[in-house]
């Protein structure tokens, strides 16, 4: 027999004595405001950012174009640079100074941001880790050395360096619509990023005596001036990443002649820097559907042995990017292929650069992963707009427009583990994916790490799933975040926290927001609504500067879902999900007990009451000669209020009226047969964790069949601590499993199962009878409104 969940129609049947409302008899103190609107927590909408989450009609953003020349001195491991910046003031404000970022000062012992971490004595140490403390700290020689800061005519500009930031005081105000052209010359010693940490620097390969350079945060860069923050000139400490201005770049890099360069944008002089064979292979790669080696492994090995003293200059250009990074080494194997983005028919060169130490992995997977990533992200966000996308093996991961740095080296014999392979593919997807968040959807990473890392990690998860359905993703699925959510509260911060203040940075900025978005997509909103809203956000804020409120508002605006409860709990709070099945009450119908006798309650209608206490307002109103009291004089108005209070009919005072409670009729044989196998189940849930979520149930019946049901999170809106739900089945339940697919991030699944043989069960009966037909409504109920169910029981 097909399983049925029985729904009662009160025009036919009614029951009494078994309702969820009977259990929830203490409605007070139930609310922690989990379902209230975010309201003033979010910034007030304005002409720049609307209440719908889209840019307003007054939205603006400034722009900066760069013309840069760089000289890489491999012997001294020094970079010398000169740049001309054209800064466009599109804001409505007059600017009398501007701010630039000097990120390399983070590597200096005397010019860094000065954000220190606490320290304790170690239980053990080694001679490399232990050093005598120098107070004050000695200058280690790293950081930016400014040689010259001038206007376009060469006149010196006054500037002040504050740690990792530089303020230039302008000789005249830069007004709205004006542009400023100025020049900066600088140099710095390139750090060993493997030993010193950081995103940019060199890695030395002692076996062959070569360096691999990743040139990042290498030039003085304009800070963002915005409608929501003014100047974003928070210091760079190494963790909170970047807030940057869009613009166009022309960059020339002079390096040893045997070096190969990859960089943001397109190289404009390959024909001058590549051999004829390499140029021919590049032309083939431009139309290839499989990666072709442009610089071969044999060529890279040969170049490692001969350190050329000659020089070459590579010229790159990039349009509408927020940053520029590059890599240089004679160790590089370089391969590439063409990938077409269907949504905009953009033909992109997907390329990879890697030393021989990574050849066994990168030759097989890297460029294909690059191509897969930009195609998949284009499906979920916006079509990839740039002409190239590149992955560089550099022992660690970091992202920039059109180029990123990743890990993925084999053992010396060329073998590798599944863990290394999957880790390498995952990091390539992640870092290439950053082209979308934040390189195009250009959020402020210095303030909100989750807006790039979290959104990107979520889309990375979708992309990994489309790469391999069994891919061992560690971030995204709800169950993977539970260990973090279990931590003590003193180790947790809300997602909506500045990156510098977070203890568990990885779970907070990457995993938890990614998991939250996956829960929204799979469990709360559904894929169709979520995907439309997510694409809308990407489209609205491509090549602009979004803030958290813009994301939250767009997701609601495009989906029609009120998600404030979710943002409040998942992003602004630290409560975990722990919903438990507290008790199950099982009830069967009592088919033989005769219905109760009909009752009739009599009452008299009283005249409307009047407040006899003379409060201060009444006294002053009575003394005010300008006030006329209409109610005392207008009998019809009195009657109006009287009728409104008692119902639609006019009732006479002091006349006796009655409310008749309709009794039911005994069930006939046909009805008894129909409902003899009926069983009611009231399931009582307790919210132990504090974070509300949908209630998802799997019913397993004694005959082995299963049934699934989901209640939205709004079932908790009137009582956030406990709630009950009642079901009626014509089969006996064997077990009830809460959250069977582990899709709500419930941290304790031990309280999610009920078995019919368990001790947490109460058994009772409820009366079932046939309702009389044609009884019509009876008067009564709150505020005198018609309540036809008053005598017939309450619907669960």
UniProtKB/TrEMBL annotation:
<feature type="domain" description="Peptidase M1 membrane alanine aminopeptidase">
    <location>
        <begin position="370"/>
        <end position="570"/>
    </location>
</feature>
<dbReference type="InterPro" id="IPR014782">
    <property type="entry name" value="Peptidase_M1_dom"/>
</dbReference>
<protein>
    <submittedName>
        <fullName>M1 family metallopeptidase</fullName>
    </submittedName>
</protein>
<feature type="region of interest" description="Disordered">
    <location>
        <begin position="772"/>
        <end position="796"/>
    </location>
</feature>
<dbReference type="InterPro" id="IPR027268">
    <property type="entry name" value="Peptidase_M4/M1_CTD_sf"/>
</dbReference>
<feature type="compositionally biased region" description="Gly residues">
    <location>
        <begin position="773"/>
        <end position="783"/>
    </location>
</feature>
<dbReference type="InterPro" id="IPR050344">
    <property type="entry name" value="Peptidase_M1_aminopeptidases"/>
</dbReference>
<feature type="signal peptide">
    <location>
        <begin position="1"/>
        <end position="20"/>
    </location>
</feature>
<dbReference type="Pfam" id="PF01433">
    <property type="entry name" value="Peptidase_M1"/>
</dbReference>
<keyword id="KW-0732">Signal</keyword>
């Amino acid at each position: 027999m097909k399983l049925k969940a029985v729904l009662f129609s009160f025009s036919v049947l009614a029951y009494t004595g078994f309702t969820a409302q009977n259990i929830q008899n203490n409605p007070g103190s139930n609310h922690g405001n989990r379902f209230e609107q975010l309201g003033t927590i979010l910034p007030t909408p304005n002409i720049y950012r609307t209440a719908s989450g889209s840019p307003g009609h007054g939205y603006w953003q400034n722009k900066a174009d760069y013309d840069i020349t760089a000289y890489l001195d491999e012997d001294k491991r020094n970079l010398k640079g000169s740049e001309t910046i054209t800064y466009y003031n599109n804001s409505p404000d007059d600017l009398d100074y501007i701010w630039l970022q000097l990120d390399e000062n983070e590597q200096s012992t005397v010019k860094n941001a000065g954000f220190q971490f606490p320290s304790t004595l170690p239980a053990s140490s080694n001679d490399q880790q232990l050093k005598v403390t120098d107070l004050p700290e000695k200058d280690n020689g790293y950081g930016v050395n400014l040689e010259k800061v001038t206007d376009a005519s060469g006149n010196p500009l006054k500037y002040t360096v504050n740690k990792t930031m530089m303020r230039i005081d302008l000789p005249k105000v830069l007004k709205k619509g004006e542009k400023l052209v100025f020049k900066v010359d600088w140099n710095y010693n390139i750090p060993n990023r493997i030993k010193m940490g950081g995103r940019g620097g060199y890695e030395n390969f002692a076996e062959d005596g070569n360096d691999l350079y990743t040139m990042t945060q290498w030039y003085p860069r304009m800070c963002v001036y915005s409608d929501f923050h003014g100047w974003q000139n928070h210091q760079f400490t190494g963790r909170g990443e970047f807030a940057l201005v869009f613009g166009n770049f022309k960059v020339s890099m002079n390096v040893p002649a045997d070096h190969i360069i990859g960089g943001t944008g397109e190289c404009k002089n390959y024909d001058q820097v590549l051999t004829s064979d390499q140029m021919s292979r590049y032309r083939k790669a431009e139309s290839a559907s499989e990666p072709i080696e442009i610089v071969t492994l044999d060529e890279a090995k040969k170049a490692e042995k001969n350190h050329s003293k000659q020089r070459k200059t590579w010229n790159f250009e990039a349009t509408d990017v927020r940053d520029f990074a590059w890599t240089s080494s004679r160790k590089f194997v370089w391969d590439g292929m063409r990938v077409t983005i269907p949504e905009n028919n953009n033909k992109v060169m997907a390329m990879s650069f890697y030393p021989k130490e990574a050849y066994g992995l990168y030759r097989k997977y890297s460029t294909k992963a690059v191509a897969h990533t930009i195609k998949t992200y284009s499906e979920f966000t916006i079509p990839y707009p740039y002409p190239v996308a590149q992955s560089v093996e550099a022992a660690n991961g970091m992202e920039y427009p059109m180029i990123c740095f990743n890990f993925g080296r084999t053992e010396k014999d060329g073998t590798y583990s599944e863990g290394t392979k999957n880790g390498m593919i995952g990091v390539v997807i992640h870092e290439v994916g950053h082209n979308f968040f934040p390189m195009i959807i250009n959020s402020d990473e210095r303030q909100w790490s989750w807006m790039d890392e979290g959104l990107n990690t979520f889309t990375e998860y979708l992309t990994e799933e489309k790469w391999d359905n069994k891919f061992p993703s560690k971030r995204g699925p709800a169950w993977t975040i539970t260990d973090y959510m279990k931590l003590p509260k003193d180790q947790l911060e809300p997602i909506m926290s500045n990156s510098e203040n977070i203890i568990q940075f990885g779970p907070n900025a990457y995993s938890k927001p990614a998991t939250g978005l996956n829960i929204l997509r799979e469990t709360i909103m559904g894929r169709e609504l979520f995907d439309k809203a997510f694409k809308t956000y990407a489209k609205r804020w491509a090549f602009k500067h979004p803030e958290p409120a813009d994301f939250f508002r767009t997701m609601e605006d495009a989906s029609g879902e009120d998600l404030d409860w979710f943002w409040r709990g998942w992003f602004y709070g630290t409560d975990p999900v722990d919903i438990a099945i507290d008790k199950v009450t099982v009830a069967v119908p009592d088919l033989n007990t005769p219905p109760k006798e009909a009752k009739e309650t009599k009452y008299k209608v009283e005249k409307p009451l009047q407040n006899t206490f003379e409060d201060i307002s009444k006294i002053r109103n009575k003394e005010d000669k300008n006030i006329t009291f209409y109610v005392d004089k207008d009998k019809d108005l009195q009657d109006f209020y009287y009728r409104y209070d008692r119902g639609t009919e006019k009732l006479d005072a002091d006349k006796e009226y009655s409310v008749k409670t309709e009794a039911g009729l005994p069930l006939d044989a046909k009805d008894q047969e129909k409902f003899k196998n009926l069983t009611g189940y009231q399931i009582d849930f307790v919210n132990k964790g504090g974070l509300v979520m949908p209630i998802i149930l799997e019913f397993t019946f004694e005959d082995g069949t299963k049934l699934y049901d989901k209640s939205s999170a709004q079932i908790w809106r009137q009582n956030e601590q406990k709630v009950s739900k009642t079901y009626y089945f014509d089969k006996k339940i064997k077990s009830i499993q809460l959250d069977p697919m582990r899709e709500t991030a419930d941290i304790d699944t031990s309280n999610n199962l009920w078995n019919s043989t368990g001790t947490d069960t109460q058994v009772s009966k409820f009366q079932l009878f046939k309702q009389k037909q044609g009884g019509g409504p009876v008067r009564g109920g709150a505020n005198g409104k018609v309540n036809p169910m008053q005598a017939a029981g309450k619907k669960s």
